[in-house]
UniProtKB/TrEMBL annotation:
Classification of source organism: Bacteria, Bacillati, Actinomycetota, Actinomycetes, Kitasatosporales
Entry-linked SUPFAM superfamilies: Aspartate/glutamate racemase (SSF53681)
Pfam entry (one): Asp_Glu_race
Gene3D superfamilies membership: 3.40.50.1860
GO biological process: peptidoglycan biosynthetic process
Superkingdom of origin organism: Bacteria
Species, as recorded: Yinghuangia soli
GO MF entries: glutamate racemase activity
Record keywords: Isomerase
UniProt keyword Phosphoprotein present: no
The protein, known as: Aspartate/glutamate racemase family protein
Length: 277
């Protein structure tokens, strides 16, 4: 069983990590696009073409499911990908975890890229799932790019700028970009105590396994991890080494749960637990 994950950069790491932890025997095919990144600043046509091309490569290499662990690509081109590959190949997209965050009934902030923040798709999610809960969109220019480079100074600067835009009344923050969970520790330490983070990585991984009818848990393991960079066989970029989940995937090692960042309302991190880890 091979699952392909498609993103321009290392935002696919959290979802790949959850797949690795939930189903260690599944082979992972990671398709990145360093030649075309960042997708967020590109046209819809460009993103769609890159996504479709990566999908073709993935299927040629035996992928039985296509996962798009990228909010921007999902918002922009998931319909085109599904039209091309479903129903034969399941296509799983990623959307901000607004619904579970809003279920608490308190004001929430949604951190995302500028493109996702401005998209009609996110606005529709808020209208459909927030159910009257106050939602504050927070655009985070440069944060995804800083994570992709493993630039800690730029990460701290971008996180601080996002915190300044986040009302203190928001006890929940939705990480609306798949890069952001990689720096959840920095985000948590910058927000008020008892803030809850929500992201979609675990939910997307579990939905992928459901679509494939693969029960979570070890089978015959461990699966392989292969990487394609802009259509060529390659390896994960050096910045992946900055994050525990990236290091584990680079060596095809087992994925400890502690390497995975907070996911869809399942795990709540506090400053104290972060400092203990």
């Amino acid at each position: 069983m091979t699952v392909a994950l498609i993103d321009s950069g290392i935002g696919l790491l959290p979802t790949a990590g959850w797949l690795r932890w939930l189903a260690p025997s599944v082979d992972l095919l990671l398709l990145l696009d360093p030649d075309g990144m960042p997708w967020g600043s590109k046209s819809a046509q460009f993103i769609t073409e890159r996504l479709l091309a990566a999908g073709e490569i993935a299927v040629e290499r035996g992928a039985q499911a296509l996962v798009v662990p990228c909010n921007t690509a999902t918002v922009t081109a998931i319909d085109a990908l599904r039209e091309s590959f479903e129903p034969g190949i399941p296509v799983i997209g990623t959307v901000p975890a607004i619904k579970p965050a809003a279920s608490a009934g308190a004001p929430i902030a949604v951190w995302a890229t500028v493109r996702t923040t401005e998209s009609e798709y996110q606005q529709r999610l808020v209208a459909e799932h927030a159910d009257g809960v106050p939602v504050f969109p927070v655009a985070c220019p440069g944060l995804a790019e800083a994570v992709d480079c493993g630039d800690r100074v730029a990460i701290v600067r971008a996180v601080a700028a996002a915190v300044e835009q986040t009302p203190r009344a928001c006890s929940s923050v939705v990480l609306g970009c798949t890069h952001y969970p990689l720096v959840a520790d920095q985000i948590m330490l910058s927000l008020p105590d008892a803030t809850t983070l929500y992201d979609s990585a675990e939910a997307v991984a579990r939905q992928t396994l459901r679509r494939l009818d693969v029960p979570p848990g070890p089978s015959q393991g461990p699966g392989r991890v292969n990487v394609v960079v802009s259509g060529r066989a390659g390896v994960l970029p050096p910045a992946a080494q900055c994050f525990p989940v990236g290091r584990a995937l680079m060596t095809a090692a087992a994925m400890p749960l502690e390497f995975l960042t907070p996911a869809t309302s399942v795990r709540r991190l506090t400053r104290e637990t972060l400092l203990q880890e």
